[in-house]
Amino acid sequence: MSAADPKTAALIVAAGRGQRFTGSLPKQYADLAGRPVLRHSLETFAYHPRVQDLRVVIHPDDLPLYRAASKGLEVGKHVAGGDSRQDSVRRGLESLAEDAPDLILIHDAARPLLAPEVIDNVLDALEIHSGAIPALPVVDTLKRGHDGLITDTAARQDLWRAQTPQGFHVTDILRAHAAARTSGEALTDDAAVAEAAGLGVALVPGNRENIKVTTQEDLETAELWLAGRAADRETRVGQGFDVHRFGPGSAVILCGVKIPHSAGLKGHSDADVALHAITDALLGGLGAGDIGSHFPPSDPRWRNADSTIFLRHAVELVQRSGGQIRHVDLTLICEGPKIGAHRDAMRARLGELLGLPQTRVSVKATTTERLGFTGRGEGIAAQAIATLSLPRADA
């Protein structure tokens, strides 16, 4: 994220009791394809590169269930919910005050099949609107009824089915929720809260899979959707390797982190051998050539360039293909500098660049027992493996 990019937080509302759901657990913790419903929502936001902060509003009684559902994910603080959804959202928004994000995405925990592109649709609309929600046009004929008989047919023109996440500028939606609390008006979603405050809320394309689990039948439908998704996707593994020799200097750049050393690395760009290897691994998984074909060293534009440009390009290509980066494993081969003291900073920077939690980023270092060019201290080698989930090429 550059200094000009807005900081985005996601708030998942998971404090409800789900009165219409008949399972032994609250619906957000019910099992869906071997994982809690909430876990599916958490992962979508945790792995999305445009979301920097993630937190959850929970019922206090559900703390053990929440901890199990969020284990291993980088999730911010959890917040105790209120007596109503509206009150829970307000509490979640107020918890963000110290972190001061620019944009907020408010999502129902019981919508586990959210697609990353729906998040993008909402965030893109917030560049010009105060609020935005994903929605689908109503296609069924609507009837009003009483005592089991039709009393009227409602026009479906201009009617939309609202989904989440619903996105807003944080300061706007905070003011809107404060006003709704003062008025005492009960509203059914955050878009209604925004509308009551006079904010313009845009409609953007939703997704028919983005269903809300309300009943056991909905849970079964979600299982079927997930089974269909799995059949249409494949796992690919890409490998990258790069080498740079030492030259004059007092530091090297590895994974975008400046590390003091008795020499620098020579290269057309900033010679970040680690990012070059990871970039090639991503491109390899896509079958999209190598870093040199995208950024030729003969092109003066890339002289002394920040290698994060190359990696961001590869990440964007994965996203455009409908894919997800699931894991990256990096090995640095050198006698020096020593990597251990900088490993956490390197993993954190890679997680930021790749849109991954640190649990899905591995940074290791080894030597060649003083054999070969790395053993003689002439340079650094890096090899990387990237695991991608992509739409099947033959689907």
Description:
The chain is α/β, with parallel strands linked by helices. The protein has 2 domains: 8-231, Alpha-Beta Complex (Spore Coat Polysaccharide Biosynthesis Protein SpsA, Chain A); 233-391, 2-C-methyl-D-erythritol 2,4-cyclodiphosphate synthase (60s Ribosomal Protein L30, Chain: A). The chain contains 12 helices and 19 strands. The protein has helices at 37-46, 63-70, 85-94, 116-125, 170-183, 190-196, 216-231, 273-286, 291-294, 308-320, 343-354, 372-375, and strands at residues 8-14, 31-32, 35-36, 53-58, 78-80, 103-108, 131-137, 142-146, 149-154, 160-162, 166-169, 201-205, 233-247, 251-254, 257-260, 264-265, 324-333, 361-366, 379-391. Strands 1, 4, 5, 6, 7, 10, 11 and 12 form an 8-stranded mixed sheet that branches. The two termini are 33 Å apart.
Summarize the structure.
The chain is of the alpha/beta class and 395 residues long.
CATH superfamily of the largest domain: Spore Coat Polysaccharide Biosynthesis Protein SpsA, Chain A
Give the end-to-end Cα distance, rounded to a whole number of Å.
33 Å
Question: How many H/I helical runs?
Answer: 12
Q: What's the number of structural domains? A: 2
Strand coverage percent: 25-35%
List low-pLDDT spans: none
State the major sheet: 8 strands, mixed
**CATH fold-level assignment of the largest domain:** Spore Coat Polysaccharide Biosynthesis Protein SpsA, Chain A
